[in-house]
Amino acid sequence: MREENCGERGLLRQLMQPGVLPGSDGGVGLIETHISWVLLAGDYAWKLKKPLDLGFLDFSTVGRRREACEAELRLNRRTAPELYEAVVPVWRAGEGVRVGGEAPAAGAVADDYLVRMRRFEQSALLAHRLAAGALAPELFDRLARHVADFHAVAAVAKPGEGFGDAAAVLAPVRQNFAQVRERIEDPALRAELARVEAWVEAQAVTLASVFDARLAEGRVRECHGDLHLGNLIVLEGEPRLFDAIEFSAELRWTDVVADIAFLVMDLQLRGQDVLANRFLNAWLERSGDYGGLRLLPWYVSYRAMVRAKIAAIRASQVDGEARSESLAECARYLALVAAQARPTAPALLIASGVSGSGKSSQSQPLVEQGGVIRVRADVERKRLFGLDAMAASGSALGGGLYSAEATARTYARLAELARTVVAAGYPVLLDATFLRRAQRRSLAELAGVLGVPFVILAFDAPPEVLRERVRRRAAAGKDASEADLAVLEAQLRTREPLEEEELERALPIDTRSAPDWRALMPALRQLWPGAAYP
Fold it and tell me: What is the pLDDT of residue 8?
C-alpha cells in the first residue's frame, strides 16, 4: 500500500487557502474519506483523490487519478447530471496553485485533478433523512423507478468479459469469508461464520447456471456498485443516485439484482424491512425482472459479508471498546447473512375483485409488512404489448388490450410469474379482477402443482363506493388501470360469485375503510400458516 505523500498533503493545504478555489473567500470545509478529500467552498464541492494503491484501486499517479476523475464524472452524470459538472486541472503557479483554466505554458502537466460538483446539504442524504425521521415511504416508489430506468439503459456485459458469470461472482465471496476468518478469534463468531459459509457454498453450486443465464440474458450491466442510503440524495424533491464506484470495474459491472441488494441489505440492517419490501416491489414492478428474485438472498448475503469484512478489519486495528463495537457490528452482519438461509413460506394468493375494490391500495400492507411479492395485471398486460404502465392504450371496452385474447395472454403471464416468484421462495400475490371461476380455478390448480397454499383475497365494497373510487382514479390519471365507469358496470353485471369450494379458501375483505390486517391475520393464517405480519 502506498500512503498519501507529503506533496499531496501540501497540495491539499494550498487548495484550502482562501481564494484558491472559486467561492472560497469565506473559508473551505473538508470531508475526508478513506480514498478522497472533498473540499467545500461556496456553491461547490471539489473532490481530490488520495495518491493510494490499495490493490483494488490505484490512484498512485497523476495520470491514474485523472482517469478516475473522468470515470467518476461519466458514471455519475448518468444519474445525477445536476451534481457532477467537470474534471478540473490544478496547475502549479509560482509558489502556489491555480485551479482550472488553460495550461500556464505549452506542454505543462497538471499537478493533479479535481471533480467539481454542485454542493448540497447533508440533510438531503437519505441516510440523514432516515435518522431524522423525515423519510417518506412514498419516496421509495420513485427511487425504485429511477433505479430501474437507470438499469434499463446501462451498458450490458457480454459473456467472456469476466463479469457476472459463476466464477466471477464466487471469487469475491470466498475472499470475504477468508478475510473475516483471519481477523476474528471469538469462537461463537467463527462458528456462525462457518455456518453461513457452508450455506453460501451450497448455494453457489445450485445457482451456478442461474448466474450464467442472467449474464446471457443481459442482466449484468455497468451498475452503480455502491447503492446504499449514504449514496442517495433528494434533489428538487426527487431521489437520485450519486457516488457510483469508479475505481473498480469488477465491483461496478454486476447483476442488476446485486445492485439493488445493497440497498435492501442496508435497509434490513437498519430495521427498515418495510421500506426494503416497498422498494423491492416497486423495482420489480417497474423492471419486470421477477426472475432476479432467485438471486436476491445470495446477493444480500454478499453485500452483508462485505460490510462484515470491513468491521472485522476495523476490529483488528483497534483495541478496547472500539474493538468490541466493531466485533458486534461484524456479528450483526453475519446474523443478516444467516437470515437469508432460513426456510421461507411461499404461497400463491390472488386479489380478486372488481375495479375500485382496493386490490392494489389495500394489499400494500401485505407487501410492506408481510414480504409478499405483488404482480399487477394492469402493469403486466401493458408490458406484454410494449407499453409503459402509465401509457393510455386507447382500447375500447372488450377490445384492444382488453380483448378476450389479450386477457388470456395476461392471465397466462401472471401464472408464469407466479411460478417464478414461488420457485424463488417468496409468497406471490396476483393482483387482477379474477371475475371468472375458470381464472381462479386455474391458479388454484397451479398452487397444487407447486405445493403451496392457495388463498383468494376477496376485496369488495358497496357499488356506490366503487363508482366513486373509479371516477376519482380515472380523473387523476395516475394509475396503470384504465378502468372507467363503463368497465366497472360491465364487471358488476358479469362477475361470477365464489363457489362453495372457493369460499373455503377465501378471505373476504371489506374495503369501505382500510382493512385491519392485524385483525385479519388469524383468518389468513388458517389458510396460509406461514403468513408473516409484525
Answer: 67
Question: Three-state DSSP class for 211?
Answer: helix
Instruction: Give the model confidence (pLDDT) of 219-264 as tens digits.
Output: 999 999 999 999 999 999 999 999 999 999 999 999 999 999 999 9
Residue 484: φ, ψ to 5°: -115, -170
Quick: pLDDT tens for 256-302.
999 999 999 999 999 999 999 999 999 999 999 999 999 999 999 99
Domain with CATH 3.30.200 in the chain: 6-119
Taking the C-alpha atoms of residue 164 and residue 89, their distance in angstroms, rounded to an integer, is: 35
Helix (H/G/I), strand (E/B), else coil: 46: strand
Q: Cβ(488)–Cβ(466) under 8 Å?
A: yes
Task: Decide the pairing of beta strands 84-93 and 96-99.
Answer: antiparallel
Residue with cell 478555489: 21
- CB distance 318 to 326 below 8 Å: yes
Q: Taking each helix axis from N to C terminus, what angle separates 187-216 and 296-317, rounded to the nearest 10 degrees?
A: 140
Longest dimension (CA), the chain: 91
Start-end of CATH 3.40.50.300 domains in the chain: 348-527
**CA distance to 56, 177, 201, per residue, from 309 (Å):** 15, 8, 17
For residue range 94-119, what is the model confidence (pLDDT) as tens digits? 778 999 988 888 777 899 999 999 99
Alpha helices in 424-499 (DSSP H): 437-450, 463-476, 485-494
Give alpha helix (H) positions in 270-358.
273-287, 296-317, 320-340
Beta-carbon count within 10 A of 47 CB: 22
Q: Round to whole Å and give the CA distance between 373 and 212.
A: 25
Residues 6+ apart with CB under 8 A from 492: 354, 463, 466
354 vs 255: CA distance, rounded Å:
38
d(Cα 228, Cα 241) in Å, to the nearest integer? 9
Q: Which fold has domain 6-119?
A: Phosphorylase Kinase; domain 1 (3.30.200)
Question: pLDDT tens digits, residue range 472-521?
Answer: 998 988 888 989 999 999 999 999 999 999 999 999 999 999 999 999 99
CATH of domain 127-340: 3.90.1200.10
What is the model's pLDDT at position 7? 56
The proportion of the chain whose per-residue pLDDT surpasses 70, expressed as a percent, equals 99
Superfamily of domain 348-527: P-loop containing nucleotide triphosphate hydrolases (3.40.50.300)
Q: How far apart are CA 305 and CA 322, in angstroms?
A: 20
pLDDT at 72: 98
Task: Compute, in degrees rounded to 10, the torsion defined by CA atoms 261, 196, 333, 264.
Answer: 20
Helix (H) or strand (E) holding 404: helix 404-423
pLDDT at 104: 81
d(CA 59, CA 118): 23
- Whether the pTM exceeds 0.85: the reply is yes
In angstroms, what is the C-alpha Rg of the chain?
A: 27
Q: For residues 303 and 173, give the distance between their C-alpha atoms in angstroms, rounded to a whole number.
A: 9
